[in-house]
Design goal:
Chain lengths: ~350, ~350, ~350, ~350
């Protein structure tokens, strides 16, 4: 069994995965991004300290290219891959599908027609989009607000929260994989969409700082785009690019074009998390019945980012989708169903018939 | 969702698969081997007659090549493939692993040290190997008998049962995919293994018949090979070739070389069914703990061929392994786990903290 | 095992209970009210016709007194009693609690603050109170309507439905256990409560009919009583008397006295079914969290009468509470948990220590 | 909710029960035998120290008589009683069966025809009968040895183990509820049974000690009685009296009178624990299928005394049977099944039909 994790992947989650694999009796081969191999080694030392038999886990320090070669040379029963969709597909092919995937998410939230607790909902939205400067696979990438919320000044509320963030109190973080140039280019492209509008942010942070240029240091940013632009082939890929940084797209819908929103959600290829902020059961049922995201938060407190400590965490709608966090997830990913039929007693006078 | 089934696949099992997929709410694309497309069409007509909405299922009549092309042009969320391991691997690569597989089995039975009910066990062994002339993915391909059974004349018993079989009363069937030439060549090759011995059969049936030459018409056959020949690289592939016909390999072990048998079982790549005919709990535990077959019959009545009507049916030890028959199997193959978290009440005085 | 059922108990439910008991392997002794013994006998004949071994069930034709004597003379492991609470308590004492009980219900419905689909909700309310002239253990005995529903003319709506009912089209039934005198006395007593008011009904049916006087033939009736009268010791018992006929009590509450309603619900001793007609999750949570009824319908479509074909059916909040209808209910009532621990292998070198 | 525990009941088990009740949200009233009230109070102080809200538990210090009076004055939803069957029946009547019971056991073990690991099985037998001088509700009260075990000198083996026990190393304990006089009288009565024989023990301990006379200080004792004496009405009650001390009855059976043993087991009224020491699946099935004990250990390592830390612990075959130890047991005893049906969406054009 093999676990592959990227460098920006929280080590406590790697730990969850490694322990799940061990619990199910697997021998584990662990490979993380070489940038964080040192950290992973400490994790392994901790496991050994806690009593893990040394031979139960193999830690491999190497780059992607060598790892791919290694994968072709050994016959792993299962590989759990966490990382980008691009690498996921490459490995799926290489491994003939003997893989479970926890890949990136283009996670959406929809605010239903029933406006309530607007401060709280705005706060959760701010957290989902900008905590850790948006560097979570479950970060809120796009928000669809019902007209009622827009009328209730929801966008102003999230702007107020965003503008309270600063590098000083660590509510803004350096961006590990997108530098300012790349972020600015993306925002500029979004703003060229017809009807698009910068709600806030849209530039590097103004505070003095010493974040190196290879990393990003960018303000929490929201770009409004009209609903119809999602349906434009030209803009669709641009809008639905997952930015591993503090940039989200927001849009507005109303009672008359909710079907348009559903079509947009159906067009997203990655189905990791989603939030439906509403307490209206009819609305919740409509959205839940027409979407397939793996982790779907529903109810007025809905978020897009949660934690595998609390519940199953993983994408949905793909037979390769992996899960982490719960006993069910551990059994699903790290074991196989096996049916043992016990049949110990031969009835007297059983008639023998050949067929 | 797509279901692909071979021509020698029982249609009642295709029906189970189609209905499982429909129960879970999928739109099904069904493709069976073009030789039996006509039968499959009748099956679909029956489903429609029973009330299946016409648009819930698409039946595709085509050959393998065109089907492969089709698969690359449409974006199926899941494909269930039943058929040979070779095609399974090809499709796995093509579909990037978005597949569940029910492939061929090289199914083994082991008779434990405790000899009991020898007539019954011999009868089950005869059925497992020769019913339908061995044309089941769960047919008994190899039998390991403990010395105690050999001493008790177990091989004579199965010979007696085999020799009662005849085309006339349908206890011998035409062989659909192996003709007599191919079967004879295989048997002859086995007999060249050092120490090998023909126990019975080993030639075409002698009764007059009108089975066309493109099909096989062959006697129930058992070839004894010594345990050590499995470990010879030269013979391993030969011995472990699944014959979709009435040919089985048998061997003998004793208390001193049970570990050798376990190593042989571990070397088998396909893990569909297995039987452990013994009522000794220590022996059962030893074998069960060291093997991974999907459907494992244990106890003195153990068989290798059972039915998905009774229990989960599918291989094990591979993340792509599919299952049929039980509610659990249907949910496992035809749906995805989705975690809906409902969170409807905002506690009073909840403190808001940005991070 | 023993099943005791009253005369007004639907035989198809007795059948469910008998079959549940048989499925779990019990030998059943069945006793129904002597008035319907003839019907029960037909049921048993049907079971025998369907293949039930004759000795699996004993049918006892007798009256209550003799049955009680019988119960003291034989050592039944379990008795399932369906009927009045009074007899249930008597038998509980007699049988030292080796009993499960499905007794009467004083079933309530509460309409939440969110008025919606008023016609439908009124229709369900009409059905719950007056179908079969209220002769169901799950009939709606009391209704608490939020002021918003009263303002929306809910009481007028249920009056309209009630007045459409007639003996002619069988939407009014003869009342088996309460005659007109008893029903009229009860309604008159309710109307003496300070602030009480007759909403509709309140007299025998006016159509010509030939229902004998020993049975009731009474109009669908609703008596409004103020919320505060429930809390009066003097009126509480009167109001909460279960009328096995077409008489319900209705009352009104508002946002300020919902706690009063909860206290009233807590005061009810019988907790069979309940309905909370609301789609407001906060309201639903509040009521659900503070009540213990066994079968609780929640949501705008909530009813008080459902069917054991669909879900577990039984009271709650009492260790003697039985359940019918689901596999879980059958196992709970008709079998006992038994823990079989299998321990077959003695580890080598196990150290023996006496203690 | 109320928990009643006897003085010789391990406090760690009371703790398990109290916590189970609290976990399920009950308010607990705890009453233990007044002799150990001081210890129970310490347990409650510990719970408070660990964070239990003070008002979640009421500790009552009182004698049985006052407690009974109290029970009639308050309306407890459920009482869990641990103690003698006599008091259990009394309380069942008093509480109309609103009770769960963990009462005494007359626990049996049967050694199957397959002799194996005789030292180990004898050791377990010694532990089951004499650990804590037999003062466990799960202590082995009677042992049925197959002739094969008797021939293999099993009785000599258990005698050797028993004679190693001494007060000095605490492998013999003072007996809390039976003094030497009472124990001696019981043993003497047993020895008057025709064919009875003292295998070992049968007198007070010989070591010097300072155990007060009100307690017992008695040697591990085994009395052999012939199988047929169980069936004698005269002796049955005597033999099946549970001695809460170091006295067990042993007997012998063979292949021809196994049905006699099954009839004897069926005659035991208390069904707490049992052990079937055999690895023969046919024998195990026969005994398991014909007995109803709550905790049944099967397999060559079978014991009669286990621990609720490991599995469900409780009697079987009585609707009042309680369970402790597992999540299932906690839910079964300390909560009630409640079925909440959610029904939130009214289909368009639903046709309204009165009935």
């Amino acid at each position: 069994m093999c676990i592959i994790a990227p460098f920006n992947f929280p080590l406590e989650i790697s730990m969850l995965q490694v322990m799940g694999a061990l619990f199910m009796g697997n021998k584990v081969l662990l490979k993380v991004d070489s940038k964080v191999s040192a950290c992973a080694e400490e994790l392994v030392r901790l496991l050994v300290l806690c009593g893990m038999p040394k031979n139960d886990l193999i830690l491999v320090h190497t780059n992607g290219e060598n790892m791919e070669y290694l994968l072709t040379q050994i016959d792993l029963r299962m590989t759990l891959f966490t990382g980008s969709s691009k690498v996921a597909e490459k490995l799926s092919k290489l491994l003939h599908g003997k893989i479970k995937i926890e890949d990136a998410g283009f996670d959406w939230k929809i605010l239903g027609p029933d406006v309530d607790d607007i401060d709280f909902v705005a706060h959760i939205s701010d957290q989902d989009a900008y905590a850790l400067s948006g560097q979570k696979c479950s970060a809120q990438s796009v928000l669809f607000a019902h007209k009622n919320w827009v009328d209730a000044k929801f966008f102003d509320k999230i702007k107020q929260y965003a503008e309270k963030r600063s590098l000083k109190d660590l509510t803004i973080s350096p961006v590990m994989t997108w530098n300012n140039k790349k972020l600015q280019d993306h925002v500029d492209s979004l703003l060229k969409i017809s009807g698009a509008q910068l709600l806030f942010g849209g530039s590097p942070i103004k505070e003095s700082h010493n974040v190196p240029d290879i990393y990003g240091s960018y303000l929490p940013t929201a770009v409004y785009v009209p609903l119809k632009s999602f349906s434009t082939k030209k803009y669709h890929d641009l809008i639905t690019t997952e930015v591993f940084g503090p940039v989200q797209v927001v849009s507005e819908y109303n009672d008359n074009n909710i079907e348009v929103v559903l079509n947009i959600l159906e067009s997203f290829k990655q189905n990791l998390t989603a939030g439906i902020a509403s307490n209206d059961p009819k609305f919740l049922n409509k959205i839940l019945a027409n979407t397939v995201n793996g982790v779907t938060y529903s109810g007025i407190r809905a978020r897009t980012t949660g934690a595998p400590q609390n519940h199953w965490f993983g994408p949905c709608g793909d037979p390769r989708a992996g899960g982490i966090g719960t006993p069910e997830a551990i059994k699903y990913v790290w074991s196989s169903h096996r049916e043992i039929i016990t049949d110990v007693i031969i009835p007297k006078n059983l008639k023998i018939v050949q067929s």
